[in-house]
Batch of 2 targets.
Target 1
Amino acid sequence: MSGRTLWELRDLWSFVALVAVGYFFGRRIEARHFADLRRREHASLALPVLTAPRLDPAWAVEDAALVTGIAVVSIDYFKYVAASLRNFFGGRVSAYESLLDRARREAVLRMKEAAQARGATVILNARLEISSVSGLDAGQRGARSAEVLAYGTALRVR
Amino acid sequence: MSAPESTHGLLLTNIESVPGRAIVEHYGLVSGSTVRSKHVGRDLLASVRNVFGGELKAYTELLEEARDEAIERMCAQARALGANAVVNVRFSTSSVAAGAAELYVYGTAVQVA
């Protein structure tokens, strides 16, 4: 293959390079994130997060406040391409499942950490909301990141 | 992570009451919204992150600012009505145009004793 033809294939090379970088770094970053999530989830087990709004009348509440947690997590290039291929064939898109899982768990953890900073003992009526500002440019090509807002009412019960 | 309550001096909850306090007056719906769009500098960094994967800190901060701004606008409305708390707070998001998104927060303004 002549040098000129190789140069003409530069788009293909950069695509292959991006996929390779995404594969090697993305996997390591994701594994580290999951390990960090497990460690922090274990450390915050003492603070229950309820999705029910009901108050126990027996509780003596000392403090109540809205707490939030926000996380925006991006998918790596390898998974982005893998998901696009999966879109063509149909079926379970595990690349996006793990992305949403990471973003939701991170947002919930940040909400819990905000509650713990206030000395809360329980979070009531926890809700999750997904938004997209960074993914919209992709339009027909699918989102590149998940943006999650977790919120609830943190209570300090004596 | 800042406690939303500390910045505007109103009590906020997303349940029907403020536990430990009695609601003495209702003022009705109050809301606040922000529409944010992507920032060129932030977007450049984000596109690098889109290769490696992982958290987009710039967008997390953007969303945190939008949340604070929307809450502040809702609280300004509540204060103007004479309320000292907002209960049943909800967040909602919608996409208005490519590259822009709305963060909307609403709740019921009340007076607690």
Target 2
Amino acid sequence: MVAQPAKKQRFNALALFRNALSYHQNWEQQWRSPEPLEAYDVVIIGGGGHGLATAYYLAKEHGITNIAVLEKGWIGGGNTGRNTTIVRSNYLWDESAAMYEHAMKLWEGLTQELNYNVMFSQRGVLNLAHNLTDVRDTQRRVNANRLNGIDSIYLDAAGVKKVVPGIDLRGGGRYPVMGASYQPRGGTAGRYPVMGASYQPRGGTARHDAVAWGYARKCDEMGVHIIQNCKVTGFDIEGGVVKGVQTTKGRIGAKKVGMVPAGHSSVLASMAGFRLPVESHPLQALVSEPIKPTIDTVVMSNAVHAYISQSDKGELVIGAGVDQYISYGQRGSQHLAEETLVAICELFPQYKRMKMLRQWGGIVDVCPDASPILTSTPVDGMYLNCGWGTGGFKATPGSGHAFAAHIAKGEPTELTAPFALSRFETGFLIDEHGAAAVAH
Amino acid sequence: MLLIRCPYCEQERPEVEFSFAHQAHKPRPEAAGEPLDDHNWARWVYYQKNIKGVAHERWNHAAGCRKFFNAARDTVSSEIVATYKSGETPPVPESRIEGEDLSFDYENAEGGA
């Protein structure tokens, strides 16, 4: 038995008007929640953005629709709904640039393609440079980006001020000028003086839950089974070939298994009998009370691992760094949030008296080179997409698209080949630690 | 912030004094009697157990006595079950992952491209 597709009604102005007449009570269900079948051609483990995108492109581009997406919680409840929604592609190395720019191009048409408003807003992303080393690294990266055809511009301090009028170029004024730090019109320079920034106009933000929902809806339309509250507890592997997965909803047979976990890749790999070069760390973010529009772009700082943007609801969305230790508890330490807020307040003194409303953490699997793993595994028919660390959201469509091609062909593609597990043995690491515009 | 007891200083100090130094009790390939080839070297340098549950980890009292020591810490609750000096036997075992299956010899299996 093959999963049955279900044609969805179109979202458009007319549909909105028609449904308004019935007080929006009659919108159809966005996706079904079927009981799992005995077996599927492909089982995707992980119903986050990346997993759903993988299923979507498998169905759309490779004609494989007999797919189940297994999600241990609910759609949009994992890291897809916990990130700071930033999208950019200004990575240093060619391999990463290819992957993230591939994603960027898909982002640009995603709302139309999915017939679902993912609220992709290309409001631009700035990555600040606070000292001479930052300036040189940033200029180098901007040049590398441009060679890869990615829109990337270097702005000096005055240029930054023009794009972000609210920023304090002195970075606070907490400490007096020491040596050759930036000195605008005399006065005092702060802890985080702004000397310049890289600027990617096509970067921006997207509504993160809408990305998961949009993909889930389209997947369902094409006959993919989305199975929530279904946790994988083991694998059926015979002679090194995967035959199925054991779940809390029973055994599900599979010809191919694509693992797309966000923060539990080591746990899944252990069940399949191999280890991974990843460490799981908590990464936290926080949002403020909503205020009127105050910042119309995204500002990120490499040196302090703080980033800020404003959501459409008016909340300031602020991201912090990772805790130094391994953790599977979805919360971060208070002192990391405090350090981030100190930096934000020094860069934007006008936010000092604002109140933070919510704070949360997610588990990110970080590779030694801060680049993801998209790979075949020692088990035949089992494929792995993990290790996106602190920056997976921006890659969602590209990751899904590339991984779907890898699964369909059963071998690496041009995009996924550099991200193979074997790179840790061959030494061809893609070292984006610090190089990728933020310190991971 | 964690409160960590340094077994050398014999007192609890705030986490910011310490550096996390990853998996403990990880012998170099030659110490484990294995050839020092690319495969084993990658396993030693990059691969982590990354345990969910009680894990043995190394910490460095970086802003204190600067000595390395080991901790048995629960990676879900962050509770530090015990800290002990380098070279000592761990007082509690590490957690095993539910469903963990290490019966097949994947180390020597083909694949993993």
